Amino acid sequence: MLLLTCPCCGAEADETELQPGGAAHLTRVGPGAPDEAFESYLFHRENPRGVHIERWRHAHGCGKWFHAARCTRTLEVFGTYPAQITAPPQPIRDAIAAKHPGWAWKEGK
After folding, report:
1. How far apart are CA 36 and CA 31, in angstroms?
2. What DSSP designation does 3 have?
3. Tens of pLDDT, residues 33-87
4. Strand order across the 51-57 sheet
5. How remote is the C-alpha of 100 from its chain's centroid?
6. Which of 64, 81, 88, 99 could serve as a FRET partner for 22 with CA atoms 20 to 30 Å apart?
7. Residue 50, by phi and psi: left (phi above 0), alpha (psi -120 to 50) or beta?
8. Which domains does the chain have, with CATH numbers?
């Protein structure tokens, strides 16, 4: 079972209380963007097994969005942080790098 701590209200919630929102830190394109940019945003994404930074909503709690860093192979959670932060905090990056030596945060995703 996946357990995440909501950084907004501090409650520990399992996945039945949460709503997934897909990959975090994506550059979203607007209505005026060229078709190629919109196609790339929708269909051309990395989806490796392993570490992901994802958006989650505490749907049956405070209702706020937050980000979670976790491994899809093991369900290990490295940490959560508010959705307003534009990159994973350094302690979360360090925790991931300690367990997955080849992992590196890609700025400007």
Report:
1. 12
2. E
3. 999 998 988 888 877 789 999 999 999 999 999 999 999 999 899 999 999 999 9
4. 19-23, 51-57, 65-71, 77-82
5. 17
6. 99
7. left
8. 3-99 (3.30.2270.10)
- The CA-atom distances, in angstroms, between 23 and each of 4, 32, 74, 84, 98 are 16, 22, 18, 14, 22
- Alpha-carbon distance of 51 to 53, in angstroms, equals 7
- What are the tokens at 62? 């405070």
Amino acid in the structure at residue 63: G
Helix (H) or strand (E) holding 77: strand 77-82
Q: Which of 26-30, 46-50, 61-65, 105-109 has the lowest mean pLDDT?
A: 105-109
Taking the alpha carbons at both ends of the chain, their separation in whole angstroms is: 29
Amino acid at the residue 3:
L
> What values do phi and psi take at 62, rounded to 5?
-75, -15
